[in-house]
Amino acid sequence: MEKRFEDVTQNENDLLREIRAEFFPELRNAKFLLLFDLKKRQTDGKIVLGRIQKSNDLVRHLTENEEIEDGIDYIITLDKVAFQSIQDVDKKRILRHEIRHAFFDAESEKNPYKILPHDLEDFYAEVELNKDDVNWRQRVADLTSAIYEQREDQ
């Protein structure tokens, strides 16, 4: 059976920690699991470069161990083809975008970790942070799609 997901390297985990410390201090206690998605995923005809999900009770149970009390709070999957083909600045953009969906609701008694929808097709804060390269997402998606097409032609 062909694998669908793979663990990321230490570099991606370090990048996540760096971004979280700089932009998302309110999520300092949230536990994230980063995985590479080995399969091309599309939504509405657009390639999915990254995706975040909130953990459910089963995932929390399966990821609980001595290091991770109560299991993980969020899973972020990253398109491996994209991540192997782009510069660090674009890797940061993808990760920062996905983390921006995470929200810590201090008033929630049951589970304070939530998922936020987009403000628009993106987030206002991300538009401002990416104003030096407003078409970065399309550029990365086009590159990733071209790589997948090359692989299919071989």
Could you write a compact summary of the structure shown?
The protein has 154 residues and is an alpha+beta fold. It has one domain: 2-Layer Sandwich (Zincin-like).
Low-confidence stretches: none
CATH level-3 fold name: Zincin-like
> Order of strands across the biggest sheet?
1-2-6-5
The geometry reads as globular
Summarize the helix and strand pattern as letters.
EHEEEEHEHHEEHH
Give a short account of the largest sheet.
Answer: 4 strands, mixed
Helix content: 40-55%
Please state the second-level CATH architecture: 2-Layer Sandwich
Q: Round the mean pLDDT to the nearest integer and report it.
A: 92
**The CATH C-level class name:** Alpha Beta
How many beta-strand elements? 8
Proportion of residues in β-strands: 15-25%
Task: Kindly provide the radius of gyration, computed on alpha-carbon positions and rounded to a whole number of angstroms.
Answer: 16 Å
**Global structural class:** alpha+beta
Number of domains: 1
Helical region count?
6
Tell me the name of the CATH homologous superfamily: Metalloproteases ("zincins"), catalytic domain
Distance between the termini: 21 Å
